[in-house]
């Protein structure tokens, strides 16, 4: 009886080994945590997105612990500097966003090359922006009416932003340039204070992330003039894009991408790419992304590299036209 029991335990152990061995190589777990650097503050759009997918990413990596670390500062330069100094061993990644491609044009000096000092893994998805106004101060209901209002008093109206040289600032400048207007720019330290002053009537208009604006739109304290990107927003189907309204050059949306340090081996690139795709395919993560109006469409590593290069060039042209330069 004892001999039979020993054989049974042996067979069960062998079966477990065989089942474990059937898992794909990229999903084999490790006890060393994956450090995920976020060059943004807690509670920001990218922070919310990544934390929504944190557990799913761990599962996709075969149970490898995933530790998220916020390192905000200098428009994302602080966090990205930490990434590029990390060993290219597959244990450190970062989720960057638009500011990564803006910074080389805005700042006089950036302590790394945003294209060659990283290994792109995937541009995972995007988050839409809205052009919003204070309806009590600005009677315009669409982009053409807002254009007419701005042109009627050049330099009179003001535009808020989340800070000099941020993507929110550049998105606003993109609209102002498209309609041929002149406005006063008022930079804030973050989107929250800017939104508060739009509601209070201190600021006439600005660009906001959809989740941040939804409650104020529902209460009537803000009006959405249009979506800044290529597509309408699922939760606001009646709000047209600015491009639909006759300004096709206005095309900007938030995006977020996973990157690793320069020199990451191809096998690790493949492992991380498959894991991040699987994480954002998780049903709970997909539901969270839908609630936040995020559009998920993970790119290949090669496509991510091409995208980052094109974005850096595009923002460079816009920053040059806007005359934005920071120390």
Low-confidence sequence ranges: 1-23
The shape, in one word, is globular
Main structural class:
alpha/beta
Radius of gyration: 23 Å
What is the assembly state of the chains in this entry? Answer: single chain
Provide structural commentary:
The chain has 327 residues and is of the alpha/beta class. It has two domains: 30-126 and 254-322, Bordetella uptake gene, domain 1 (D-Maltodextrin-Binding Protein, domain 2), CATH 3.40.190.150; 129-227, D-Maltodextrin-Binding Protein, domain 2 (3-Layer(aba) Sandwich), CATH 3.40.190.10. Helices cover 44% and strands 18% of the residues. Helix 2 (45-60) packs across helix 9 and helix 4 crosses helix 11 (301-322). The longest helix has 22 residues, at 301-322. It is globular.
Brief sketch in words of this structure:
This protein has 327 residues and is an alpha/beta fold. It is 44% helix and 18% strand. Strands 2-1-3-10-4-11 form a six-stranded mixed beta sheet. Strands 7-6-8-5-9 form a five-stranded mixed beta sheet.
Q: How is the secondary structure organized here?
A:
Elements: H1 2-21, E1 34-38, H2 45-60, E2 66-70, H3 77-85, E3 92-97, H4 98-106, E4 118-127, E5 129-133, H5 143-152, E6 158-161, H6 167-179, E7 184-187, H7 191-200, E8 205-209, H8 210-219, E9 223-227, E10 254-261, H9 266-281, H10 283-291, E11 295-296, H11 301-322
Parallel strand pairs: 1-2, 1-3, 6-7, 6-8
Antiparallel strand pairs: 3-10, 4-10, 4-11, 5-8, 5-9
Helix pairs in contact: 2-9, 4-11
């Amino acid at each position: 009886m004892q001999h039979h029991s020993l054989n049974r335990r042996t067979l069960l152990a062998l079966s477990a080994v065989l089942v474990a061995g059937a898992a794909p190589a990229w999903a084999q777990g490790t006890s060393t945590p994956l450090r995920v650097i976020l060059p943004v503050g807690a509670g920001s759009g990218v922070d919310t997105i990544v934390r929504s997918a944190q557990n799913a990413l761990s599962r996709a990596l075969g149970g490898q612990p995933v530790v998220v670390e916020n390192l905000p500062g200098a428009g994302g330069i602080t966090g990205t500097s930490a990434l590029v100094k990390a060993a290219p061993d597959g244990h450190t990644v970062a989720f960057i966003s638009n500011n990564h491609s803006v910074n080389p044009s805005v700042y006089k000096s950036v302590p790394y090359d945003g294209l060659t000092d990283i290994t792109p893994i995937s541009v995972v998805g995007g988050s839409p922006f809205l052009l919003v106004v204070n309806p009590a101060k600005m009677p315009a209901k669409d982009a053409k009416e807002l254009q007419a209002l701005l042109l009627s008093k050049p330099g009179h109206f003001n535009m808020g932003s989340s800070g000099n040289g941020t993507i929110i600032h550049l998105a606003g400048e993109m609209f102002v340039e498209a309609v041929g207007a002149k406005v006063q720019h008022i930079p804030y330290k973050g989107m929250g204070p800017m939104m508060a002053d739009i509601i209070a009537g201190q600021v006439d208009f600005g660009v906001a992330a959809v989740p941040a604006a939804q409650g104020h739109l529902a209460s009537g304290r803000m009006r959405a003039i249009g979506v800044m990107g290529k597509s309408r927003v699922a939760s606001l189907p009646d709000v047209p894009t600015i491009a639909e309204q006759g300004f096709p050059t206005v095309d900007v949306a938030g995006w977020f991408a996973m990157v690793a340090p320069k020199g990451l081996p191809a096998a690790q690139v493949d492992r991380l790419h498959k894991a991040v795709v699987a994480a954002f395919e998780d049903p709970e993560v997909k539901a969270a992304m839908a609630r936040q109006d995020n559009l998920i469409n993970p790119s290949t590593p090669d496509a991510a590299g091409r995208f980052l290069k094109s974005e850096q060039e595009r923002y460079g042209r816009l920053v040059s036209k806007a005359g934005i330069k920071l120390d």
